[in-house]
Amino acid sequence: MSAKERRQVTSDAGLSKQRVVAEAVRLADREGVDGLSMRRLAGELGAGAMSLYYYVASKDELLDAMIDIVFEEIELPPEDTDWQSAMRQEAVSTRQVLARHPWAISLMESRTTPGPANLRHREAVTACLRKAGFSVLTATHANWTLNSYVYGYALQASSLPFETADELADMTEDVYLPQLPPDEFPYLNESAAALVAAGYDPTEEFIFGLDLVLAALEPLRVSA
């Protein structure tokens, strides 16, 4: 079969790079990235595995494109506000996007051939910090610290056995407290009971920690 004929076959199958990558993201969202293979992806698309290589040359190229979609979904730090508000908005958006695509957490910093959305995002973050008065070195420190916090939080949140304050309260009362007799674990028992009584919402922890990180970075900007 000639190259022209092969291109016609794949065209008739309705494939495109955009469709291949989008389906790969959907598959990873459902089942994680470890089980993603060209053969499995081809099956989801109703195509032959070899036909996918007309659109992505390798699994690494596919992963680059998938991560670029993730970066495309993250809001860039706005330019019309102070640096802390801008980076706060970007960090909140990143956490929300990674909650939709938890498979991407470990891949966000691993791509050696980043796509255009990936590069636009990094340029915007660096520009925000540099324009705020951070030096090249302190902007790098700030970026690493913020990414470590956001990715670490996203990874931990993805493995929690609850999602809401009500679910946590029910689990604490039904599962955790019975395992915490007050004579053996007085502080853990006290904390669990008090948090349930207060209606503690674990989703607020992200903003609490983020604001601490942003406040701690402020002196670096001033000294710069």
Features of this protein?
10 helices, 224 residues, flat, mainly alpha, single chain
As a percent range, the share of strand residues is under 5%
CA(first)-CA(last) distance: 63 Å
| DSSP strand tally | 0
Mean pLDDT: 91
Instruction: Give the H and E element order.
Output: HHHHHHHHHH
Radius of gyration over C-alpha positions, nearest whole angstrom: 22 Å
- What form results from the Cα inertia axes? flat
Helix content: 55-70%
The major sheet is characterized as: none
Low-confidence stretches: 8-12
Determine the structural class based on helices, strands and strand pairing.
Answer: mainly alpha
Q: Total helix count?
A: 10
Explain the overall architecture:
67% of the residues lie in helices and 0% in strands. The protein has 224 residues and is mainly alpha-helical. α5 (83-100) packs antiparallel against α6 (116-131), α5 (83-100) packs antiparallel against α10 and α7 packs antiparallel against α10 (205-223). The radius of gyration is 22 Å and the shape is flat.
Summary of the model, kept short:
This protein is mostly helical and 224 residues long.
Which helices and strands appear, and what pairs or packs with what?
Layout: H1 3-12, H2 17-31, H3 38-45, H4 59-73, H5 83-100, H6 116-131, H7 136-158, H8 165-176, H9 186-198, H10 205-223
Helix pairs in contact: 2-3, 2-4, 4-6, 5-6, 5-7, 5-10, 6-7, 7-10, 8-9
